[in-house]
Design brief:
paralog of FGE (formylglycine-generating enzyme), globular, 3-stranded antiparallel sheet, about 15% strand, alpha+beta, about 260 residues, about 20% helix
Amino acid sequence: MDKRLIFAVLIALVFTGCSPEGCVLVKGGALPEDSSLGAVPVDTCYIGKTEVTWGEWKKVRTWAVANGYWDLADVKQGVGDKYPVSDVNWYDVVKWCNARSERERRTAVYRDGANVYRTGAVSEPVVVSTANGYRLPSEKEWEFAARGGTKSNGYTYSGSNDLNAVGWSRGNSEESVHEVGKKLANELGIFDMSGNLWEWTGSWSPQHEGASRVIRGGFWEVYPGYCAVAYNRNRGAHEFQYNSLGFRVALSPAP
């Protein structure tokens, strides 16, 4: 094949991207009936293999601040480049997702009216469902991926019945967050969906409609039971930011 054609194909893959870097394809299916959400259908999507790291956050943040995302200056923190970013509130996270999308020439998912959401505190931004950019997973997407999707073996935790094999919690974390991807992955090749950090989702909390979002996963200081995929459910107001709270990205397949 002509080298120029090969180069053109590679560029197309990068910018229209059927395989976003660092993401896993989660083929559609349905949650089991014992899920707290019920046996709801879940569409095919991509989800990050790991929680977004401090190194990834900084790289996008540098571009973002120079391109209209002024609110992200000096936000937030991480122990090291391979550790998950933490202390990120919901507003910061969705703006960062938009910045990463624009940086990679994807279509931003979140809008403030007719404009790309770049600044301010918009608790209910317009979500462009046809956009191919980065976003937060919905709660059902998150749980389906944590359970192993269509490849699920029905484990208690994400990838095993032994939390020590796949996650960090009070029993093994030494009261600290850990680098991403140091435990075994689940059936889909996704890491750390039981423990390490709680993770933001894009879904509203049904108990606090209009006031908070669902967070999932458990974190490094909770007891193992809180890290089980069926029970690791919590909520947080949009402005919450803690050293126990981070996120991972999702994308919808290109139309």
